[in-house]
Amino acid sequence: MPDPHSLGDVLAHRRWVRRRRPFDHVVSTDVFTPDFYGQLHDQVQGILDDPEMFARNMPGYDASSCELKTHREGPLGVFTSRAWHDTLAGIWGVEATGDVSATLHHHAPGGKSGWPHNDLNPSWFPGPPPKSDEIQMVENDLVDHQRGTRAEGVEARENVRAVAVLFYLGNPAWSPGDGGETGLFESASAAAHGPSAAVPPINNSMVMFECTPFTWHSFLTNRKPRTSVVMWLHRTKEDAVSTWGEQSIVHWG
User: Fold this and answer.
1) CA count, 13 A, side-chain hemisphere, 23
2) What's the half-sphere exposure (Cβ side, CA atoms, 13 Å) at 248?
3) What pTM did the predictor assign?
4) Cβ(250)–Cβ(237) under 8 Å?
5) 200 to each of 25, 188, 193, 237, how far by Cα in Å?
6) What is the end-to-end Cα distance of the chain in Å, rounded?
7) Do 105 and 40 form a contact (C-beta atoms < 8 A)?
8) Strands (E), 38-88
9) How far apart are CA 142 and CA 123, in angstroms?
10) Could you say which DSSP state residue 170 is in?
11) 167 with 145: CB under 8 angstroms?
């Protein structure tokens, strides 16, 4: 995996574009160098080829997932490095905690469109806050990351999602009409009229945004397979409440 403290050898450029509509988001193509993206592609293809790696464990969401924490030793480890975390947090000016949730999501062709949501959800992590050069991943075997349930004596912290990132990789070439975009909406109710913007799942590209009460988005149905790294940085609950208000946090159903 790349140096966890530096991205200089793997990033192709920093021409990441901020767009304002329907809410602030950043998009970038050709994120990583061709050589490093090739390594990412090969690792993901090996995971996709193993039917035991993915599970249908997201109720109501027409996709399968694989926890990234089990694949941190290879190129995919870049997404759980402190350098990546701090770069993304810095773009959004978020005081992120070092806690990361990261998975691979795979949508087979014909996946149902998702429902509009804003990702301003709580997430629980075990132990004390990570140090400034560390990352703490979700550990559901210790603490349920949605509800915080845990065995007696297990220390845990409640955070709230702060930054959402989708990076597309391991997919066939994309053309308009293939679907699988990430739809961005003016509001939850406006979704009935279609997305205001749609980010296509082009390999080695990404979209990211700060999680706010207004960042409504969803998966759009696909005609070709779509695989992506889906990850979140987090802020303390106190920070989220002071920024957005307790009533804005969307608790899990």
Assistant:
1) 19
2) 20
3) 0.95
4) no
5) 14, 20, 19, 32
6) 37
7) no
8) 64-67
9) 13
10) S
11) no
Element (H, E) at 44: helix 34-48
The token duo for 179 is 């679907």
Domains of the chain: 17-248 (2.60.120.620)
159 burial type by CB count under 10 A (0-12 exposed, 13-18 middle, 19+ buried): buried
One-letter identity of residue 225: P
Q: How confident is the prediction along the chain (253 residues), in pLDDT tens digits per residue? A: 555 557 989 999 888 999 999 999 999 999 999 999 999 999 999 999 987 887 777 776 788 889 999 899 899 999 999 999 999 999 999 999 999 999 999 999 999 999 999 999 999 999 999 999 999 999 999 999 999 999 999 999 999 999 999 999 999 999 999 999 999 999 999 888 999 999 999 999 999 999 999 999 999 999 999 999 999 999 999 999 999 999 999 999 8
Please give the structure tokens belonging to residue 166.
């989708």
The number of beta carbons lying within 10 Å of the beta carbon of residue 99 is: 28
- Structure tokens given for 147: 């509800």
User: What's the length of the chain?
Assistant: 253
CA gap 37, 34 in Å, rounded: 5
How is residue 200 written in tokens? Answer: 């296509």
Identify any residues that bridge with 228 across adjacent strands, giving them in sequence order: 105, 168
